[in-house]
Amino acid sequence: MNATAKPTRRRGSAAEEARFAIEQAEADGVSRKDMTLRMTLRDASELKRDPKVAMADIAYGPDGMTYLGVAVDQVGGVTQSSLDRGDTSYVRGAVPEPVVKPKAVRKKAVNADGTPKAKAPAKPKKVKAEASAD
């Protein structure tokens, strides 16, 4: 085994993973005010119910929930919880734009040479004979 390889780290609870990511970012010089925890609904729920998390670590205010002084964004639509360090285009609290699928377009009929096929002539409408009053 290579001596320079990092040992693999085992995944902990949502609270432990968030704490580890926050401490790593802070060690890299990122302010906690700039950070945003983007959590899956499951991880946010686990964080709130974790008996190992001190009540002082989680706070609720008009701006939402914070964990260890870092804003928690739990809007859903996230497949994996992550820490945004404030260096991306992510906007805290913004609702992601829905994915719009383009409408299906029917292909036009073409001849073998690529020219559009002519439409069949329209059938003439039947004219009702006027009733004559004799």
Can you walk me through this structure?
A hairpin with a 2-residue loop joins strand 3 and strand 4. By secondary structure, the chain is an alpha+beta fold. The protein has a domain of 53 residues. The longest helix has 14 residues. Helix content is 17%, strand content 13%. The termini are far apart. The protein has two helices and five strands, in the order αβαββββ. The chain is elongated and about 95 Å long. Strands 2-3-4-1-5 form a five-stranded mixed β-sheet, with helices on one face. The model has no long low-confidence stretch (mean pLDDT 80).
Q: Could you give a short description of this structure?
A:
The protein is an alpha+beta fold and 134 residues long. The protein has helices at residues 14-27, 41-49; strands at 36-38, 58-61, 64-67, 70-73, 82-84.
Count of helical stretches: 2
- Sheet with most strands: 5 strands, mixed
Q: Roughly what is the average pLDDT, rounded to an integer? A: 80
Shape: elongated
- Total number of β-strand segments? 5
- Find the structural class using helix and strand composition: alpha+beta
Helix content: 10-25%
- Measured distance between first and last alpha carbons: 112 Å
Strand arrangement, major sheet: 2-3-4-1-5
Question: How much beta, percentage-wise?
Answer: 5-15%
List the helices and strands in order.
HEHEEEE
Please state the CA-atom Rg, rounded to the nearest Å: 31 Å
Stretches where pLDDT is under 50 for at least 5 consecutive residues are none
